[in-house]
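Sync notes, pocket subgroup
Present: LS, DG
LS reminded everyone that the earlier model was apo-only. Rerun requested with heme C included. Inputs:
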Amino acid sequence: MFGWQQSFADHHGSPGAAIKLRFMIRWIPLVVLCPPPWVSAQTADLEQGKQLFESLCGSCHGPLGNGGRGANLAQPQLRHATDDRALQNVIRRGIPGTEMPRHSFLNPSKLANVAAYVRTLGRVAPEEIPGNASRGEAAYASLDCVICHTLSGKGGIVGPVLDEIGARRSAAHIRDALVEPEAFTPDGYLQLRAVTKDGLALTGMRVNEDGFSVQFRDFSEGLHSFWKDELDVLEKQWQRSPMVSYEGRLTPEQMDDLVAYLVSLTGST
Ligand code: HEC
Ligand code: HEC
């Protein structure tokens, strides 16, 4: 007999307890076979799921779920949401360290309905993206992106890491970012302009800020730290980016190729 069974029997006195124990063991497999506490897609209310999706998720994932600021969910395989349970966990808890927020206020049936609706989004034909990813890779290498962005461990830290950009953002969002970088600022990126009381003017990306001090990194990656009372000006430039639009600097074909390349960066190879 296993140690824990033995101690159970000792504690409760044999042989009556041992019979009860055998009875319990026989029922354990049945308990395991019972339906899981999350509701399956068949029983879900897809109409409610759709409404919840449109009101809670559409602003980031697009009303059709094919992405934007949020990932493209209209695909058969999702990176974080590998099965129904993982999908519900992602929705309920969010993805820490990313812009995907938690939705812990959803009750179990609403959670199941919105998750089931997300699954239906994956049953569409994959989005056709014009452009050639391998030509785009060559274009990336010939441009100045590496000064500010890290990819495969190489490059600067002024802008976000691009390794999984294709899994995090839609093709349309990526194109917009190249054409109009100032239109959207990812979480954690804010350009600051500071002028000290001695008249020294600096611009850079915010690293940290509290009520009394601010730290930022200039575009040569030099770190600066100031007490706020040392500054005459501290301007938060929400609508500014050090990244300059590539519209007009690339032909439309090169733009398509570059977007196709960035979309292919899903971190999964
Ligand atoms: C504020 C924007 C925002 C909102 C609102 C939002 N998401 Fe997200 N979501 C994101 C971003 C950004 C990611 C990608 C995170 C990453 O991997 O960096 C993401 C990722 C996901 C993923 C993981 C995709 C994968 O590949 O596994 C799922 C699933 C998801 N979101 C579902 C939802 C659902 C359902 C809702 C509404 C209940 C929702 N999201 C609301 C921004 C958002
Ligand atoms: C001078 C620095 C700089 C250069 C050069 C630069 N970027 Fe950026 N990039 C940034 C910064 C900072 C951000 C974040 C703020 C913003 O969106 O404007 C950003 C944002 C992005 C985003 C959006 C990321 C997201 O999560 O939404 C993409 C995509 C991107 N850059 C791709 C590129 C590519 C491709 C190139 C080269 C063709 C390039 N960048 C060149 C600094 C730069």
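DG: Residues 1-15, 28-37 have pLDDT under 50 and may be disordered.
LS: The CA atoms of residues 99 and 187 lie 7 Å apart.
Action: DG to write up.
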